[in-house]
Amino acid sequence: MPAAIRAFFDEPTNTVSYILSDPATGEAAIIDPVLDFDPASGKVSTASADALLAAAAEAGLQIRRIFETHAHADHLSAAGYLKARTGARIGIGAHINEVQAIFRPRFGLPAGKGGDGFDDLFADGAIIPLGTLQIEVLATPGHTPACISYKVGDAVFVGDTLFMPDYGTARADFPGGDAAVLYRSIRRLLALPPETRLFLCHDYKAPGRDSYAWETTVAEQRAHNVHVNASVSEADFVAMRTARDATLAPPRLLLPSLQVNVEGGRLPEPTPDGARRLALPLTLPKDYAEA
Questions:
Q1: Hey, is 126 helix, strand or coil?
Q2: Non-local CB neighbours of 227 within 8 Å, separated by 6+ positions
Q3: What SS3 class is residue 77?
């Protein structure tokens, strides 16, 4: 029986989260969940994460895992909140230790051990059981060193590696990013069977398109991706990506997102005055709790 997939779009961050479930057993995973954050006020809320929990409860699902495709720089992860509510294990690519080593010193975060904040660090080729489903991990670095994709049946959750064909590909200019490595990761995805479905983490509506979209296929990407279709060489892609990235502004929530997300969605510990050390002020709802 194929996996069931339900998408949830968060328009303020243009992020797509997913509930992936096994119809045979009701076991489920949440992929790339969003913690709502208002940078103007510093207030955190959990409406997006609570919507995932409500949908799972309505469908009779048991959330067993929380999968991150990478440490996001454009939204705060709700993984810590969801773990506290469900007991689910948080997993990410094994190379998260490289990302932590880059960003912890920049934010004055404790050095800790590589992988702290996550329950599972997935290596390339790992097989993760979810009920009767078998989920294969594909290492797809380039946007960050720790980017991975999750393949189940004919579906692959590719994180930020690819966008819709009319929008292109992820940036590769963050510390640890590499456009040539990204190109090879994309080629690995595009070597999958043409009917393979690709589920994306973001959509920004390319010019001329009126609606958001987050599902495409390998065949569509090979034929029509504006950055990396089948005819684009690695050298041409790297030149395009490098020039384009030089024009891009930092993500709006870059500073608070990275501080939270490299720690598995855990918010910083309170300082002696009761504040949370973030690059922007942070106010939690009274009933917020983390594991």
A1: coil
A2: 168, 169, 237, 240, 241
A3: strand
Residue 87 region by backbone torsions, left for phi larger than 0, else alpha for psi between -120 and 50, else beta: left
Contact by Cβ (8 Å): 123, 170: no
Tokens 């048991």 identify what position? 62
Q: What is the DSSP string of 22-52?
A: -TTT-EEEEES-EEEEETTTTEEE-HHHHHH
β-strands 89-93, 62-67 pairing = parallel
- With 0-12 CB in 10 A as exposed, 13-18 as middle and 19+ as buried, what is 247? exposed
Asked if the model's pLDDT at residue 278 lies above 60, the reply is no
Q: Is residue 82 exposed (0-12), middle (13-18) or buried (19+ Cβ within 10 Å)?
A: buried
**Could you tell me the domains of the chain?**
4-261 (3.60.15.10)
**Residue owning tokens 């510093």:** 42
Could you read off the pLDDT of 28-54 as tens digits, one per residue? 999 999 999 888 777 888 999 999 999
pTM, two decimals, is 0.92
